[in-house]
Amino acid sequence: MAYVFTFWTFYTLYKEYKLITSMRLHFLASQTRRPDQFTVLVKNVPPDSDESVSEHVDHFFSVNHPYHYLTSQVVYNANNLSDLVDKRKRLQNWHDYYENKYCRNPERRPTTKTGFWGLWGETVDALDYYSTEIERLLNEEATERDRVISDSKAIIPAAFVSFKSRWGAAVCAQTQQSSNPTLWLTDWAPEPRDVYWPNLAIPFVEITIRRLLMAVSLFFLTFFFMFPIAIVQSLANLESIEKVLPFLKHVIELPAIKSFIQGFLPGIALKIFLIILPTILMTMSKIEGYTSLSSLERRSAGKYYLFILVNVFLGSISVGTALQNLKAFLNESASEIPVTVGVSIPMKATFFITYIMVDGWAGVAAEILRLKPLIIFHLKNAFLVKTERDREQAMDPGSLGFSTAEPRIQLYFLLGLVYSVVTPFFLPFIVIFFGLSYLVFRHQIINVYNQEYESGAAFWPDVQKRVITAMIISQLLLMGLISTKDAANSTPVLLVLPVLTIWFHYYCKHRFEPAFVKFPLQDAMVKDTLERATEPNLDLKTYLQDAYIHPVMRKEKFDRRLTLEEDEESLLVPTKRTSRRSTPGGSKRGSDREGADY
Prior knowledge:
It comes from Platanthera zijinensis. Keywords: Ion channel, Ion transport, Membrane, Transmembrane, Transmembrane helix, Transport. 63% of the residues lie in helices and 5% in strands. The chain is built from 26 helices and six strands. The longest helix is centred in the first third of the chain and has 29 residues, at 2-30. It starts with a helix and ends with a helix.
């Protein structure tokens, strides 16, 4: 039966991967024109003493992509400006609130206090105060915007580079630009609404250090997360609380308080930790420096799945306290771990069936009812909503929380594969869960959630890897379980399954995954040819010129420092200044042979 379930999983995974790959390629070939189809994100632009970052980028791509390069937009470190804009919008919202209040009662001017949230400080006229503060912030915005535009230090060594065709962008995004593989790093640009602008200003070297630190932090968070939970739950013990806080002894002994502490406090403490976990993991992903919302969600989903695998699955099937489990795993050899865990698998079947009904079925029901967002909306409406803008934001359903929803579903894949052979009675509960999940999430995605970005199914390779990981875990645990039974001699027969699973994974990876990380040049050329035939007068430069400007600067006119303002079709590329570092042939500044060298 282990072979039956393994080969059935192979068949369904292969069929699904093939279908999704076909749908992705069809989507990319049929979708309407978008700026990210023509644009690549270039990072780690090397410094040049002769040219600014903007000139250096224009020069490099004019020389190395002379037939296809169109324009570029350097990346400004506008994080401070963004903070000022956000602050000014909040003050504008308060001004609108007091203005509406004054319109309803013109006989009395509204007042506020200048302290935190208007709770303390000097009492002043609200309309005059917020008008003055808004005017001050507008002046600060203008000053900061001028500084960003004029200060060379505000320009970071990265740029969005656009090309005249999809074919040219695909060639640039999928090739090495320099003999030094750490310079001129190119990758497909996220679509404009998918860009996470604050992380574009992080230097390349700093990103490497940040990711190392976050990897270490994730290790400790994953494997030692049980300790703060154990500490909090131990405090829920009456004797512990009375020992730490003896003056509360008389209060704790009250029947109602005693029942609450013993019955609810441990579960509430665990729930609070699990509620704040996704926020912690998303913050860690942002610190790592990923430059798109989709990549942030992908990384957070990977971290969350690792946490669930270790703390929910392995933690639940292990018996004893956290310290005892850790000591047992550290003292025994690696070959004994599957045996230790495998023996616990059948005994925990009832627990996981209950877990599926409580967390899975009830979670799906809560998803369709959306009680939590409903309660949060009414709380916001009662205490935070001041204007119609606030009400619209409070009513926003948001997008599908992929970073938490997908790993939770992957846990049920893992449970189904682990118990498919060991406890077949488990399978109907899994089937019911996935049937309900399909109906509910299909409805929510179509009718409820807003689409934050479009990735073209770029998440699927990660989903495939996690199912493969679940298969290998289930096979190893099955071998550990069988080795303790009378059929221990048949264990070597199962050794073939992990090998076949790994081979299947690499086959699918080489067969289908390139479609999720690369764009076929043939499809790019077909789409370019069709577009030139249907729209011969398309002004692509005008279409792209403002696509990748920072949102806080998008409505402002500022110097883009473009060097290709002459004839775009010319094969000779005129440049304002030359740099021997990026010019083939070693041309010299001021030489009469500059044009010939180019």
